[in-house]
Specification:
By secondary structure, this protein is α+β, with helices and mostly antiparallel strands. It has one domain: Sandwich (Gamma-B Crystallin, domain 1), CATH 2.60.20.10. The protein contains 1 helix and 8 strands; from the N terminus they run αββββββββ. The strands form 2 sheets. A 4-stranded antiparallel sheet has the order 2-1-4-7, with no helix packed on it. Strand 1 and strand 2 form a beta hairpin.
Length: 132
């Protein structure tokens, strides 16, 4: 089907793209930005204290202070994929997939981040629109 060389080139290309995007600066707090929104909650199944958090495609954003290291469930809007980052791993670059711990979620998100071993650790996130 695909040769080992083709797969290796594809992996290298994706890694280079991710590294290039990782070296961006963190944007202002998401409450001030236009765009689509996540629903974030402190309890499983989108319950407990919840809010909508605005984002702009491809921009690394800090979670609102209320949800830093407290988010347990999240709704990702249809047509989007979002990567969530844990900075307690001493990441040196904002939204860094190499030195920081992260988890990728597609729509509809996760009713319980404990399933991804990512409960109460999210500091930053970045979302990308999926191709139609």
């Amino acid at each position: 089907m695909f040769s080992t060389r083709f797969i290796s080139l594809l992996v290298a290309s994706v890694a280079a793209s991710v590294l290039a995007k990782a070296n961006t600066t963190t944007a202002p707090s998401p409450e001030t930005l236009p765009g689509d929104t996540l629903t974030v909650c402190v309890d499983p199944n989108l319950s407990g204290q919840c809010d909508t958090v605005a984002f702009v495609e491809g921009v690394c954003l800090n979670m609102p202070a209320t949800y830093v290291n407290t988010m347990t469930s999240v709704r990702v809007p249809p047509g989007w994929a979002c990567t969530f980052y844990d900075l307690r791993s001493n990441a040196t670059v904002a939204c860094d997939p190499i030195t920081g711990f992260n988890t990728l979620l597609l729509a509809p998100g996760s009713p319980d981040l404990r399933l991804q071993h990512f409960d109460d650790v999210v500091d930053q996130f970045r979302c990308h629109q999926l191709c139609a």
